Amino acid sequence: MTSAQDKFLKGSNLSGLLASCTGQIITVELRNEAFVTGKLMESDGFMSLTLEKAELIDPHGNKVRFDNFFVQNRLIRYVQLPESLDIGACLSQQTTMGQPGRGRGRGRGRGISRQRQSIMDAREARRQEDIRNAHRMREQMLEMKIKSEQGK
Which of 30, 21, 43 is nearest to 74 (CA)? Predict the structure, then answer.
């Protein structure tokens, strides 16, 4: 994965929150009901994790220690974040980091093109005309209803 993709993913989903826990001790519950506790060294935009000085506790309660432990994203069930983590601040920081820069977009930074604006203006004019016609039809139907009631 390129760094641009990683940066976008971290800024647009909750993997950015996990990236802000780098250097802290976290606990990860795996899908096979095992737990891994260790110091988070790295996480990517897909939420794959690399832990250092990790301890794996399998479903039977057996403990195994690892210097480095990689957890693939599809194996994660839950991640227990440290209580000291300010989630609001981390999320706002991560979302501002992922702002798109100068890329391969079609625009030149001037907003909506004149042609697109004229199309949108024409659509809005048709919509307004449809609304006026609907009001006229409603008034005519009410008048017809009142006349038919008076005629009875």
Answer: 30
